[in-house]
Design a protein that fits this description.
Layout: H1 2-6, E1 27-30, E2 33-35, H2 38-47, E3 55-59, H3 65-73, E4 76-81, H4 84-96, E5 102-106, E6 119-124, H5 133-138, E7 139-150, E8 155-162, E9 167-175
Parallel strand pairs: 3-4, 3-6, 4-5, 6-7
Antiparallel strand pairs: 1-2, 7-8, 8-9
This protein binds S-adenosyl-L-homocysteine.
Length: 189
Amino acid sequence: LEAFRTVPRHEFVPPESIVRAYDDSPLPIGDGQTTSQPYVVAITVAKLGLQGHERVLEIGTGSGYAAAILGELVCEVVTVERIEHLATTAAARFARLGLTNIHVHHADGSLGWAPAAPYEAICVAAAAPKPPPALLAQLAIGGRLVLPAGALDQQTLLQLTRTDQGYLEHELGAVYFVPLVGEAGWPET
Ligand code: SAH
């Protein structure tokens, strides 16, 4: 809750949405994308079980809002966005707000971000048919992965915990996210 009080959401939405910046709802951010509902960000972050020392991978930077929340809670955030314009806009925002522990990469996040792996926690803000194998592989033993998986029109939010034997899966409820478009997600239409 302290992180949500600290991060100014009005800095992450386009001018036409500023009046709704503190509504608990998703908002359009351009390029056909939306920034997630704060409540959904809160569930995701809570289920990552963060202590503060972690390096976290986020797939789907979008506006950068969820990355900024994560940046308040952990040492380092690595975030990957496939739309170049959103990635550069988010990077400029982090610089302007002095959020120096967030690193943005323009790439297909369905393949994760191998150079900084493994991660103690990974979250995904776009939905794939099933958990991308690269994300499972880049999760540290003991780490948590929270992501939506399922059909294009509805998904289940999943929490996967990596153990030395495999992955434990918990279903967190029905959600709706934009598609994860990429090699281990949906094809571009
Ligand atoms: N966390 C963001 C939510 C943005 S919506 C926020 O707080 O604003 C999801 C984002 O995932 C979109 O910006 C979309 O472009 C991005 N995305 C979709 N497929 C992706 C992929 N394969 N790799 C990286 N980003 C992807």
